[in-house]
Amino acid sequence: MRTPLALVTGGSRGLGFETARQLGVLGYRLVLAAKDKTRLADAASTLKSHGYDVQARTLNVGSARSIAAFGTWAKSLGPIDVLVNAAGILPESGGDITVLGADDKAVADSISVNAMGPWRLCKVIAPLMAEDGRIVNVSSGMGGLTEMGTGYFGYRASKAMLNVLTRTLSQELHERGVMVNSVCPGWVRTDMGGPSATRDVQHGAAGIVWAATLPPGGPSGGFFRDGQALAW
Q1: Which of 8, 51, 61, 228 is the most buried (most CB within 10 A)?
Q2: Three-state DSSP class for residue 34
């Protein structure tokens, strides 16, 4: 019987690393992808030391060229059962976070990494996925329109766009049995979330793993936190 394979971006740290670790516990073979080669190697080494089957490959999700090269390499992996788009940035946190004061580059970078990157990666990875595969887009409640607040314009816009990817792609992949869902992990204590965040990384990753391991017939095209539906 073939051992399932999970590909996790942003896998060198934070939610990406913990998601990969939890999937490893469940018996998945792992591919970690991240931009920082040194941190990626350290993360892979740590998981291997615990007995997990891990490969590591550098990937800059903000670069169309890097994604194209990664997609070519990924053809050698065989069927991919899970894709977790966990890589993300919040460049606006260090400056004026108001909408009118937002920096052009920070907004553009947010959209490039948090939305365009997952879209481009799905374009090259979805054709390689196994029947009944799972795609999880790590989103945020900050991208939900129903309770949209102010500030962090680029980050909010990028996560709203990521949710659009989830909704549309889920319909296009439905006949193949591939489920596509967005997951908000909550405010998690990571490099991005900071030390004041209300959740530990294990709790935040658990909801991502839930969506990555949904049984056949589970929900697709949804927005969830802790396995519970969120308003768009």
Answers
A1: 8
A2: strand
pTM over cut 0.90: yes
166: amino acid identity, one letter: T
Phi first, then psi: give them for residue 180, nearest 5 degrees. Answer: -130, 120
CA distance 23 to 44: 14
CB proximity list for 215: less than 8 A, separation 6 or greater: none
* Number of helices (H), then strands (E), in the chain: 7, 8
Question: Hey, what are 112's tokens?
Answer: 């490039």
Segment 195-210 shows an average pLDDT of 91
pLDDT digits (tens, 9 = 90+) for 97-137: 889 999 999 999 999 999 999 999 999 999 999 999 999 99
- As a whole number of Å, the CA-based R_g of the chain is 16
* Cα gap 223→93, rounded to integer Å: 24
The rounded mean pLDDT for the chain is 95
Distance of CA 168 to the CA centre of its chain: 17
Local structure of residue 59 (DSSP, 8 states)? -
What is the rounded distance in angstroms from the CA atom of residue 16 to the CA atom of residue 8? 6
Q: Is 90 left (phi over 0), alpha (psi -120 to 50) or beta?
A: beta
